[in-house]
Design a protein that fits this description.
The chain has two domains: about 10-155, Transcription Regulator spoIIAA; about 160-220, OB fold (Dihydrolipoamide Acetyltransferase, E2P). Helix content is about 35%, strand content about 35%. The chain has helices spanning about 20-30, 45-50, 60-70, 90-100, 120-125, 130-155, and strands spanning about 10, 35-40, 75-85, 105-110, 160-170, 170-175, 180-185, 195-205, 210-220. The chain has a five-stranded mixed beta barrel. The chain has a four-stranded parallel sheet with strand order 1-2-3-4, with helices on one face. It is globular and about 60 Å long. It starts with 7 loop residues before the first strand and ends with a strand.
Length: about 220
């Protein structure tokens, strides 16, 4: 651990490397790792995962998500997904979409496949038409927003710790809770780079959580 850093987030660790021991340590044993994981999936269809040369199948991914959520129901889980990989059929895309729909994850980072020279994927041939790639990307973005909204709704009314950032927009400041809910609060220069205990009250029209302070105590970081 680095002295002076109180929060660590697990970011972009593939499911085959995210062992049960790591999950248990982060959620049960450490006071510094927060309940937020970003775990690349890329596709929820096993044939495509094999074509992408991933070292896992979707069943392992589902196991990792289930273990995290069993230990911490309020944990935030982000997912990387690729759409339009060469040879991706309508049926395979829907298989992936439905797999993601059933997973208790919180948001997606959606990447539209683009050809790059001298890569194995280019040699696969059977490219997905660009209009289909865009359509599939849009569908995943819509699902991601629904997942994020549902996660925020689950957190409404809870008490969280927010680290406020040095950002001001129309009189508001922003920060993230330990489980990665984005929060807004009336700008107060004294609260920049401090942890504040807040109650999450409601989601605004931009999908950001409003909050109110529950304590005047602050820890400067």
């Amino acid at each position: 651990m680095v002295k002076g850093i109180d929060r660590y987030r697990i970011s972009s660790i593939e499911p085959n490397l995210l062992s049960n021991e790591i999950i248990d340590f982060c959620l049960n044993e450490s006071n510094h790792f927060v309940p937020h994981f970003h775990i690349p999936l890329q596709s929820g269809n096993n044939r495509l995962l094999k074509a992408m040369r991933r070292k896992y199948l979707r069943e392992l991914y589902a196991e990792r998500v289930s273990r995290i959520k069993t230990i911490r129901k309020d944990a935030c889980i982000g997912v990387d997904v690729i759409v339009g990989f060469p040879g991706e059929t309508d049926e395979e895309f829907m298989d992936s979409l439905n797999f993601l729909k059933d997973l208790p994850v919180s948001y997606f980072h959606v990447f539209t496949y683009s050809e790059r020279a001298n890569t194995t994927a280019v040699k696969l041939g059977d490219p997905v038409p660009m209009n289909l790639r865009k359509e599939r990307s849009k569908m995943l973005h819509i699902l991601s927003e629904k997942k994020k909204r549902a996660f925020y709704e689950e957190n409404t009314g809870t008490i969280r710790t927010v680290l406020f950032e040095n950002e001001e927009d129309t009189g508001m400041m922003y920060g993230f809770t330990e489980n990665y809910v984005k929060v807004k609060f009336p700008f107060d220069e004294q609260k920049i780079n401090t942890f504040q205990t807040v109650e999450l009250t409601e989601i605004d029209r931009d999908g950001i959580m409003k909050c109110k302070l529950t304590s005047n105590q602050a820890i400067t970081v």
